[in-house]
Amino acid sequence: MIRQVSALFFLLPLTAPASAQTAAIDLLDLTHPGLEAVAAAQAAGDEKMAAEALLTYYRQRHNVVCPDMDPVQTSPTPEERRWADEGMEHRFFVHSGYQPSYHYGDDIDWQYWPVKDNELRWQLHRMKWWVPMGKTYRATGDERYAAEWCAQYLDWIHKNPLADYREEEACDWLHADNVYFAWRPLETSDRLEFQIHQFLCFLPADAFDAEFLLAFLDNYHRHAEHVMGHFSASGNHLLFEAQRLIFAGVFFPEFRDAASWRARGVEILNREMGKQVYDDGMQYELDPHYHLESINIFFKALRMMDANGYRNEFPAEYLATVERMIEVHIACSFPDCTTPLFSDNRRHDTEMLRTIYRQWAEVFPGNEAIRRLATEGHEGAAPDYFSHAFRTSGFYVLRNGWDKNATVAIVKAGPPAFWHNQPDNGTFELWSRGRNFLPDSGCYVYGGDKEVQQLRNWFRQTCVHNTLTLDNRNLEKSESRLIQWRTEPGLTTLDLENPSYEGLTHRRTVWFVDERFFVILDQAEGEAAGQVALHYHLVECEPVEEASKCTVTTRFGDGNDLAIRVFGAQPTTMERREGWVSRTYRQRNPRPSYAFTAKKEAGHTVRFITLLLPGIDGAAVPRLDATLHDGYIRVKIDKKRYKLEY
Ligand code: MG
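# magnesium ion complex -> structure
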């Protein structure tokens, strides 16, 4: 139920300053086709009539489209409807993980910061409840949503003026002025994109009158110019800003500056594609979430330009790179469409991913792998390979199929990366027959005050990954060197080494044997001394542990279990440790985690062999044995013997 629009409504300023209104028309190119009546009224000095003519123009304009928003067909999901209704009461959905949503005051306090998580303060200024309000307005015809949106929009302008903006003075976020939150370029660009959706939804509303239109255009133009003057230096932020500037220039071609916004955005995306996408197709932040976001940035820019007649602005190589990035995303996905929770990745909604695949399929109709995923397997075909190495970015996929019965391990061991990337070199996830047995710990939360940062730091630790540590410390270096990648029938071999710590090199050799099970040899060599530990983190379950045999086995009771057994070449102990897995922001589940520890003397090498046997019945584990020899290891699974050379 929507509360009756109340007195608090009148606390909000309902008009923009007169100067903004007159200035808005001056920002437009009045020779633009369709603006003749606006130009005539303006020339006659009748600003009111010019504004009315402009509103009529936009309400009748049909030659500009936004492919992501059809206001006639749109309707809110139940969740969006809730955000819209809560937004009417100033309980704003700002970020997942902070529900029920906080109340921002009858007289909205745009500086309210209930938990010192930076995202909560920044993302307030993305107003994620405004598009849902627009969709709800369209679905219900209830003018109160439009009136409230207009009021909140003007209130935001009034309380968040764009003051002198010098980013170098905003480095301490806990004490930064409000302008650095409200006008951070990433947030500003977010508004450039989604205020197009709001504009389309609310344009027919009573509250969206000529006076409001001028305030909107004035504010919107200020946004685009602010982004033009304050691009982020690099990374996905810069890509987002460029893409959204293109949106602004395409959707509002009437602005005198629109062509320069488009040109700058196109120039940046073309340039950054060469910098930020490795030759193997992975985005250089090495985070599956931002890889997907980057694909969508490049893709959305292309689609927006295409839909509005700005073809040929991107070279053919642009399109080919986007397709290559999509192929990396597909290769690094499990059969349920999820991707490893490496770095700051989070679980993506399968339906949302299907929608994305359908959009990709429209632009790449000849790509069979995309079509297969877009049609849930009814059309198209899986890629013509299984295991695959992305050597530059350091993602290695060991796979025996593409359908739900497949077994897939994805190893991450790449070059140095940036803020989102965790010190997790050598880690991997293992998925088999519908179950992700060794999910990454995830990230749980981004940055903030000390308390929030401590939570983030826990999930970033090297020891909460499926890799090797010295004295439980975080890795000092991630610069993996590929020694060998070989695929042959029945055996895939991955051999890597990383200078993990001063005085300790971690060499990890992974064999995917008989397309069924994994053998891992970990060697910690060098002058360093201390406790070397090998870490494995299971999915949420109640496994059976045998510490004396360094063994742990899941017992799901459905015939799809995993046995882990570690053989130390030196005395090795197994202990259970604190374990968590977080698939969405601010949500985490406890899970069984294990460390297998051995003492390392200076100059000596610590070696562990791990057998990972998925797809078995945990109540009837085969007899497992592994022995280390000079240059090879001997593995026994029941009576079957294997010799693996290293
Ligand atoms: Mg991680």
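# post-check
The CA atoms of residues 67 and 304 lie 6 Å apart.
The first strand starts at residue 388 and ends at 390.
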